[in-house]
């Protein structure tokens, strides 16, 4: 394996990974930026329908031998991959930072969460084995098998270029499927690095394919007859498109969408710890997390105090180049930075109070941003008294903009959260066990934190929201994933002897 994936020259072309080798791809390309410098450092090929179909054909060809490889041999590959990714995590983190912009420690955190799933996947023999009932009828045994689906497509977003592909690929592969991964075209190098590590771990060529692209590549995966299932993560409108198109073409589809995560703060909460949690969960990864807290729902009696503490703590955040000692990096593109900044103006004209304005410090000159002036910077922003009719409240902003919405009571806060069309994550901050227990029971959201602001479940539980944050069946990782990537076959068997002869047209019952 070479290290060319980490080179940063403008001419570097990121390859597809097809049939166990790098492949240049065709003429259609997109630029890949270093967001901390605001310059295109690489280019990525955007595969055509024909190229994606060819890539799928290599996966189809590799599938039967992989499916039939012994459990022991498949498991050894999964363990070797785990050792390799642990050994090379620093290198992978540098690749992530160079294209996504998140700070190095955050990139390592993303990899740590991915490794949880890699480790879970090594337990696939336990999770995919069947059941056996002896003598279901006299001399008749009934048993179930879980078999892989075939070729599985994975389509991932820009915000976790290693973790999201690794939410799915390890379990799909371990369960005996071949995988075609279409990573985000904004930060595609991590996926190629991962595929090369799998090859080094012994994965046969063609079992994991990485094909880069945009809508054309995605739609080919969604409609191709040789793709059995799709795992998608991205924004809600695209998740809905993926779910509807893939389902219409007979595929098993799980499509995880966008979010607007609320954190309800009751008057008895420890306000200092709560302010820390709000700042960490609001501005980590520049707010570009599907589990970021974007709305603090504060009960009136403590709202002023909480606003002051959050604003004070925000001053300590060092915004800058993720390769240096900073807390928060740039946004993914200039266009996205401008869109996020636009919401600050929208909120202000809709009547919100702009408590801390991240636009005040768009450059490094005197602004405190530790990075190139051309980077896609926006410093942390705090809005208060945001009207729920404002687009700044309704839309998923996906940037370092934290809103406070004030409510009179627990009931009003709960109603606000439950009325929101998204249902990915939420949290309650309180010292009242009864209130927390009531919240976990009443809130209409898939992942709930009690004094935990980003309640991303551990690998052996499953990840997934409710409402407009998910389409289709089956969550990411955990037990659900083994079920998603396999299908059950039930065998009823008997070994004939002379007593089984004779005519009997009845329904066999004993
Ligand atoms: P996105 O929806 O723009 O892109 C996701 C994937 O879809 C990419 O691979 C992209 O190439 C592809 N795509 C984009 N437009 C398409 C189109 N018109 N047709 C077909 N495919 C298309 O999302 P993003 O900006 O990369 O990621 C951010 C979004 O992902 C946010 O909304 C965030 O909340 C969401 N997200 C959700 C979760 C979750 O678990 N629910 C996790 C991470 C990110």
Automatic annotation (TrEMBL):
InterPro entries assigned to the protein according to its UniProt record, in alphabetical order: Ald_DH/histidinol_DH (IPR016161), Ald_DH_C (IPR016163), Ald_DH_CS_CYS (IPR016160), Ald_DH_N (IPR016162), Aldehyde_DH_dom (IPR015590), MeMal-semiAld_DH (IPR010061)
Pfam families for this protein: Aldedh (PF00171)
CDD domains assigned: ALDH_F6_MMSDH
Domain Aldehyde dehydrogenase: 27-491
UniProt keyword annotation of Acetylation present: no
Keyword NAD: yes
Enzyme class: oxidoreductase
Entry keyword set: NAD, Oxidoreductase
Domain of life: Bacteria
UniProt EC number: 1.2.1.27
Cross-referenced NCBIfam families: MMSDH
Protein name: methylmalonate-semialdehyde dehydrogenase (CoA acylating)
Native organism: Agrococcus terreus
């Amino acid at each position: 394996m070479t290290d060319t994936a980490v080179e940063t020259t403008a001419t570097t072309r990121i390859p597809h990974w097809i049939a166990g080798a790098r492949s240049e791809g065709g003429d259609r390309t997109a630029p890949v930026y270093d967001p901390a410098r605001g310059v295109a450092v690489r280019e990525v090929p955007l595969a055509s329908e024909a190229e994606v179909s060819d890539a799928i054909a290599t996966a189809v060809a590799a599938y039967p031998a992989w499916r039939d490889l012994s459990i022991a041999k498949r498991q050894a590959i999964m363990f070797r991959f785990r050792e390799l990714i642990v050994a090379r995590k620093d290198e992978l983190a540098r690749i992530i930072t160079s294209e996504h912009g998140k700070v190095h420690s955050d990139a390592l955190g993303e990899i740590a969460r991915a490794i949880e799933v890699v480790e879970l996947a090594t337990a696939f023999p336990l999770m995919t084995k069947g059941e056996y009932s002896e003598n279901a009828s006299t001399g008749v045994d009934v048993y179930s098998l879980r078999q892989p689906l075939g070729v599985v497509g994975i389509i991932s977003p820009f915000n976790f270029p290693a973790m999201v592909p690794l939410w799915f690929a390890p379990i799909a592969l371990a369960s005996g499927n071949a995988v075609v991964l279409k990573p985000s075209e904004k930060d595609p190098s991590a996926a190629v690095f991962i595929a090369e590590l799998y090859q080094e771990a012994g994965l046969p060529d063609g079992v994991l394919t990485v094909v880069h692209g945009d809508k054309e590549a995605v739609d080919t995966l969604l409609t191709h007859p040789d793709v059995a299932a799709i795992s998608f993560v991205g924004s809600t409108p695209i998740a809905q498109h993926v779910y509807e198109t893939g389902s219409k073409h007979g595929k098993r589809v799980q499509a995880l969408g966008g979010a607007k995560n609320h954190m309800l703060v009751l008057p008895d909460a420890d306000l200092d710890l709560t302010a820390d949690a709000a700042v960490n969960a609001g501005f980590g990864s520049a707010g570009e997390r599907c589990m970021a807290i974007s709305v603090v729902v504060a009960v009136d009696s403590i709202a002023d105090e909480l606003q002051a503490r959050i604003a004070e703590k925000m001053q300590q955040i060092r915004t800058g180049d993720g390769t240096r000692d900073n807390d928060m990096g740039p946004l993914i593109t200039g266009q996205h930075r401008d869109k996020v900044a636009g919401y600050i103006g929208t909120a202000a004209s809709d009547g919100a109070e702009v408590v801390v304005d991240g636009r005040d410090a768009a450059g490094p000159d005197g602004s405190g941003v530790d990075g190139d002036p051309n980077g896609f910077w926006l410093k942390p922003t705090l809005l208060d008294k945001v009207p729920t009719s404002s687009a700044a409240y309704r839309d998923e902003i996906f940037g370092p903009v934290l809103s406070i919405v004030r409510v009179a009571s627990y009931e009003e806060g709960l109603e606000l959260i439950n009325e929101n069309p998204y249902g990915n994550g939420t949290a309650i901050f309180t010292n009242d066990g009864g209130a927390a227990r009531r919240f976990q029971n009443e809130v209409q959201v898939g992942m709930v934190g009690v004094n935990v602001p980003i309640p991303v479940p551990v690998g052996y539980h499953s990840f997934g929201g409710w409402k407009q944050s998910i389409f289709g069946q089956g969550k990411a990782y955990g037990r659900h994933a083994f079920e998603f990537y396999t299908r059950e076959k039930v065998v009823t068997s008997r070994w004939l002897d002379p007593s089984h002869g004779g005519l009997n047209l009845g329904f066999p019952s004993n």
